[in-house]
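Project channel, design review

CF: Before we commit to the Plasticicumulans lactativorans constructs, I'd like one complete example in the thread so the newer folks can see what an input/output pair looks like. Taking NitT/TauT family transport system ATP-binding protein.
RD: sounds good, go ahead.
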Amino acid sequence: MSRVTLRNVWRTYGEQVVLERLNLVVEAGEFVTIVGASGCGKTTFLRMLLGQETPSRGLLLLDGTPLAAEPGPERGIVFQRYSVFPHLTVQDNVLLALELARAPLLGRLFGRARRAAREQAAAMLDAVGLGAFATRYPAALSGGQQQRLAIAQSLVNAPRVLLLDEPFGALDPGIRADMHALIRQVWKASGVTVFMITHDLPEAFALGTRVLVFDKPRVDPQAPQAYGATITYDIPLRGRGPVAVPAELVRKLTPVAEAPAHA
Ligand SMILES: Nc1ncnc2c1ncn2[C@@H]1O[C@H](COP(=O)(O)OP(=O)(O)OP(=O)(O)O)[C@@H](O)[C@H]1O
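CF: and here is what came back for NitT/TauT family transport system ATP-binding protein:
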């Protein structure tokens, strides 16, 4: 688990300002959910936390130290799809995550170290409910099981920060409920600091200890690229029990075509 600090972080691509003036302190062990209109920079924000992108301006700190500008085992990520290696079995997917972290040059452990890693991978698979599927290939898993595997793969190195980019977006509602229970359980057990993007507002409010809303507070119709999104709402939820989704947010984030006629 880790404290994450952003000080006046900006991300631009050429003339396009995607994110601007991000200031944030997230305490170790928080579960931060992130919502915002499509294209407003949520994934870009996560990619900066992962180290796949660097801020164009400003400071991004992990426990007070500037974040390494490349992904490392202290940060794990799960995407909506395609996070796992299709040509490896379930157990080898998790084992590889351990081998890449512990033997970055060879990507392979030997002897006692490999046996220990195998045991650890098996324990992780049990923890996410995939113990019985260890020798299957991902193609023979359901969507929910594939996401369980992706979660196991990203958690096995005990990251300090877990980044989730719409991890349950492609799953049926019943399976999503199971996944919510799982992610809550692994978050509580590990104390990892979580950042999760979702398009589902009730999911954001049900899982998060804090909801961040990304939006563009300034828009110039003559120069749509001139201004970026920032954090326009920072809603604390921890210790408040179930919180209803504010109607104003529903209106803001529901695409016009989907909004009810009377809205
Ligand atoms: N490598 C890049 N080069 C140029 N532009 C980029 C790059 N990465 C992202 N962008 C731009 O940044 C903007 C934000 O993209 P991003 O994927 O972060 O949005 P998002 O909020 O995650 O969207 P969605 O909800 O649809 O997934 C988009 O206009 C995108 O085209």
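RD: helpful, thanks. Helices lie at 42-50, 90-102, 111-127, 143-155, 173-190, 201-207, 247-253.
CF: The radius of gyration is 19 Å.
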